Amino acid sequence: MLNPKPPSADILIDQFLNYLVVEKGLSKKTLEAYSRDIIRYRNFLAENKSSAFSEEDTPLILKHLILLRKSGLAARSRARHLVAIRGLYRFLVQEKVLRNDPARLIDLPKTSLKLPYVFSREEIVLLLEAPDTKKPLGVRDAAMLELLYAAGLRVSELINLKLQDINLEAGFVRIFGKGSKERIVPIGIHAKEKISHYLKTARSQRLKQAPSPFFFIARAGNPMTRQGFWKLLRRYAMQAGLTEKITPHSIRHSFASHLLEGGADLRAVQIMLGHVDISTTQIYTHVTRDHLKKLHKKFHPRG
Q1: Which residues are registered as beta bridge partners of 175?
Q2: N or C of the chain: less Cβ packing under 10 Å?
Q3: Is 302 among the catalytic positions?
């Protein structure tokens, strides 16, 4: 029996852009920019008689970047192009369309890319205290938000948690991340308290005797959808008076940044985030540098 024909390049691009909306929560403006960059790359491939994405595309990606530079495109814009292309190929590997990522070893053009907004500790506290814990849904939402920040989870990891994945007595959560890779992340006392309260009250009230393997449940014992949690997060951000655009991923960024500000080892943060390559985690070192600069200026006699 022949293997089924893989989806066309255009269908894969549509799937990738939908993934950026649902999983990454990109803004409309950013999504439009990514879409333009990917379509421009797709047209370049077509001009070079390449009708499908391949593990052998590294030379073509480099040629595309060289042509962008020759066309006068600024380093920042070329960097954004490569970020979009890298994201596409990572997605194709994640979805098992490709085995290897041809863009993985291509360096970004020298530029200072804008990094995601990091919420302050005070802003995070306002967000975590926004749910009304006098109501069952508020108890559930408070536990979800607290765990999202406590463990730096991706939204897909949060909503797919099973009952057996949280050990309150030992104080850790077991996560199955990208590629079904398992990691263990500790959770603090605040998360333990809110999760314990949710288990003893709101979860059983919500289930009404109907069993469900999922830890956080929506209707009929089913897990919440990514879109559902994203809307929930935005609602609580508005209640908390947070003016910056918020996504589950920005909470994950804040988790990592706050750990590093507090003196955590980069390798430990890499493990907790579930990054395979430490270079992915190194984007957070800007926070440590900025934090140290502020401390030096504030406390050094000649700062």
Answers
A1: 183
A2: N
A3: no
Model confidence over 200-242: pLDDT tens digits? 998 888 887 678 899 999 887 888 999 999 999 999 999 999 9
Please name each of the domains of the chain with its CATH number: 9-94 (1.10.150), 121-294 (1.10.443.10)
The one-letter amino acid code at 300 reads H
Other residues' Cβ atoms within 10 Å of the Cβ of residue 282: 13
Kind and range of the H or E run holding 168: none
- Local structure of residue 107 (DSSP, 8 states): P
- Catalytic-residue membership of 284: yes
Q: Which residues pair with 214 in a beta bridge?
A: 162
pLDDT beyond 90 at 145 = yes
181-197 pLDDT, tens digit each = 788 888 989 999 999 99
> Which residues on adjacent β-strands are paired with residue 176?
182
Alpha-carbon distance of 274 to 271, in angstroms, equals 5
Q: Which of 140, 253, 258, 275 is catalytic?
A: 275
Per the annotation, the verdict on 135 as an active-site residue is no
